[in-house]
Amino acid sequence: MSSRLHIVIRRHFSNYYDYHKSASCYDIEKNKPIEELKVLDAGCGTGNYLQVLHNCGVRRMYAIELNKSMINECMKKNQSLIESKVLQITQGNLLSDRLPFDDEAFDCIMLNQVIHHLETESSITSGFTNTRKVLQQFYRCLNNDKCSVVLINFCAIEQVLSGLWFSQFIPQASAQACKRLPKKDYMKKMLEDCKFEDVRSERICEIHVKEDVYYDLKGINDFAWRAGHSTFALAPPDELKHALHTVNAMIATSPQYVADFINHHKHIQSEIGSSHTFFGYKLQKN
Ligand SMILES: C[S@@+](CC[C@H](N)C(=O)[O-])C[C@H]1O[C@@H](n2cnc3c(N)ncnc32)[C@H](O)[C@@H]1O
């Protein structure tokens, strides 16, 4: 069931920043032409995925985002899609009791790198109630006609702790970040608890930012670079200061030392991946 969708979406996520490589479409084998599928990008940010979806042939796109400045950027990037009524953007909070969409409004909903924003440091003890609430709303908003799908991409705890090259330099911040992330098995359980069926996941090895920028260790000195990795925001000032000092000392050691460090981390990344994408289906009840 839906194997083509599975392959296509994996390819889509694997080419996060190489939009031209993203091929094909969200064909979910329900005899609906691609241009009739309704797709919601939840927490769309500046809309990285919307252009990809459009290139794939999707013509009924919806996006919801909390942050006004993200929406403004997204609108700038996608002005023609908005004008041609292919795309509707809503400013809204995914944590509201009822999302501003009708029951069964979409064929596909994606939530990409948003979970850690929804959760707090007490999420592990509270059972990730925010994510559960959002998943319940997604289930309500997915249609019941043959098969619809939710796609959740997030970094698992081990991927944050061992996969990110800088985590070892900001251990307190990394530990805090992990408190906001469900374990992989728990994500599956939550989707199943929220009635999604045939839940499966894919390990995504590609990183979510441009690789040359991510592996430019000097970047850690730059506020804008650090802003691209939300874990840094959780680092106490002393920890950040110490991290900068240690990384700069490492850079000063020798280019070979840095190259070995980077290769080591690329190897780890290829072993454990940098994120997981979960797929959960809402199937038609006979
Ligand atoms: C890391 S960005 C990911 C953006 C986009 N999904 C992507 O993959 O390029 C997380 C986004 O989720 C948004 N966000 C966080 N909490 C939200 C909420 N409660 N409701 C709606 N959007 C939210 C943030 O404003 C931010 O734009």
TrEMBL record:
| Any one GO MF annotation of this record | S-adenosylmethionine-dependent methyltransferase activity
The lineage's top-level taxon is Eukaryota
User: InterPro entries, alphabetically?
Assistant: Methyltransf_11 (IPR013216), SAM-dependent_MTases_sf (IPR029063)
Coiled-coil residue windows: none
**Domain Methyltransferase type positions:** 40-144
Q: Which PANTHER family match?
A: METHYLTRANSFERASE, RHODANESE DOMAIN-CONTAINING PROTEIN
Spell out the protein name for this chain: Methionine biosynthesis protein MetW
Q: Which organism is it from?
A: Reticulomyxa filosa
